[in-house]
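User: Okay, second chain of the day. Same drill as before: sequence in, C-alpha cells out.
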Amino acid sequence: MRDKTGKDYAEREMAGTAPRGLSRFPGALVPIDSPIVFSHFAADVAKQIAADPGDRLCLITDPVTARMVDELDRCRALAEHTFVLGEIPSRWARASGVRSAHNDSGRQPEDAALLLFSTTASVAMVGRRIGDGAATQFQGGWTADRKSVDAVARVLLPGTELRELLAPPAADAFVRWIPQMTRLMTVFTRLVSAQQTAGNVGRDELFSVLDILKAIASRRRTHDVLYVFVEQVARVIQMDRCSVVRIWGRDDQGQVVASHDDANVRDLLIDLEKYPELRWSMDHFEKVVINDAQVDPLTRDCPGLKESGICALLVVPIVLLDANIGSLFLRGARRNDPFTPREIGFCEIVAEAASNALERAHLLERLQTANERLERLAVTDELTGLHNHRYFRERYAEEFDRARRYALPLSCIMFDIDNFKKINDRYGHLQGDEILREIAARTLRTTRRSDIVARYGGEEFIIIMPQTGAEGARAQAERVRESVEDGVYVGLPQDAKVTVSVGVAELQYQAMLDGEALIRAADSALYEAKRTGKNRVVVSTANGEQS
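Assistant: Same drill. C-alpha cells below.
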C-alpha cells in the first residue's frame, strides 16, 4: 500500500516513531518496551472495550495473549468475528465465530498482538520478543487511530477478506471514542511510569519493600498499618520527619495520622497554609519532590520552614479521594541531602503497597464495627438503650448461680411507671416513649457498673444487684424513685408528675431454690407498692411479707 507521495507505508514507518522490528506496520505506534506493560495494558484495553464495545466488534489476537489476558473472554463473547494468529485456545475452541488465521506472507505471526475494533472502538497492540533467556528484549507499540488499526489488521491477516469485517465507523465514533481513548492513554502512562520506577529501585531496596509488606500485612487496624509504614520507611530512607497526612477534600486543615517518631500521634491537626507541598499534591494528584525548600517557588515563602532548617521535601500520594478515609499522603523531610531518584522510586512502590494494606485494614475495621453493632443490638433494648430481656436472663442466671455457690448476697429491684396508660392516652405514645428513655437514663446514672439494669417489658424495669443485701437494695431503690419523681420531662406540663412503684427482694438460700423465686418475690413487693398507694418502695422480707 502507498500514500499520496508514493512511499510505501513501511518506508514511512521506518522514518516514524515505531520500534525497530515493527516497521512493516503502518502509522505511528506508541512504543511499548516491556512485556509486563503490554499484558497489563492489554487487560485494561479489553476491560474498557467490553464495557462499551459498539457494534460489529472484531477481535484479533495471538494464543499467548489470549491465555494471559482473562478479560479477553468477555470481548470474545461480544465479538462478531474472532481471529487467533495460531492455535486456538482450548476454552475458545468450540465457540462460534472463532477462527485460526495464518498470514500468507510466509512469516511467523508477531509474538504478541491484540486488535479490537468496531463501529466506535479501535485499538491495535503488537509486540515481538527478541533474544533468549535473560537477554530477551521486547519491542512493541500500540495505536488508537482508526486508520492505523485497520492497516495493522490488513498486515496481520493479508490473506483474509477483511473488507466486510472492518465495520465502518459510526457518525459519532470519534466523539464516543475520546473518553475511552483518554482513559487508555492515562492508564498507559501510569504503567510506563510504574515500570520505570521499578527499574530505578535496586535489589536491596526491593528486599526492604518485602520487609515492609511483611510488617504491615499482619496489622489489622488502620493506625497500626500507617505507623509501621512510616517507621519502616524512615528506617530504610534517612529522614528527619516521616509522616502520613490525611486531607478531606478542600479543607484548610490536615491531620497527621501517623509519625515515625511518635507512635501516639493520631489526628494531629495542621494548617495546610504552612504545608503548600501537601496542597499542591492534593490539587494535582501527583508526587512532589523539592530538593531545595529554601529557594523552591512552592515553599520559599512558607512560614517557619527556614527556621526548621529543612532542605528537601517529598510528598507521595498513598490513597487519593477515598470517601471513607479521605486523601492520604506520605510526607518526608530532610535537613541535609536531597532525595535521590532511587529513594523516590522506593517510596512510590511502598506507598502503592501500603494503599492495599490500608484498604484491607479499613475493611476489617468496618466489619469489626458492624459486628460490634450487631452484638450490641442483640443484647440492647432499642428504645431505652438498656439491656433487653434476653440478655438480662443470661446474666441473671450467671449471678444467681454464683451467689448460691459462694453464699453471696444478691438482690433484685423491680419497678414500673405509675399510671403509664393514662400518660399514653393523654399525651400520646411518642411522649410515652420519651418518658421511658428518660427514666432509663436516670436509672443508669444512679446504679453501679456491676449492677444489671434491663427493660423487663412494657413500662417495667428490673435491676439485679450482685453482692448487695436488702438494706443496700432498699437504698438504691429509693434513689431511683426520687430521681424519677424529681425529673423534668420535656413535653409534659410543669405540674405533671411521673412516679414509679418499686419492689425489692433479697435472695433467701433456703426458700428460693431457683432464680424465678427471687423475681417473683420482687414482683410481689412491686404489686404491694402499687396496692398501697404507688410512688413508694416495698421490700419483701425473709418470710415473704412486705415492709
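The radius of gyration is 38 Å.

User: Thanks, on to the next one.
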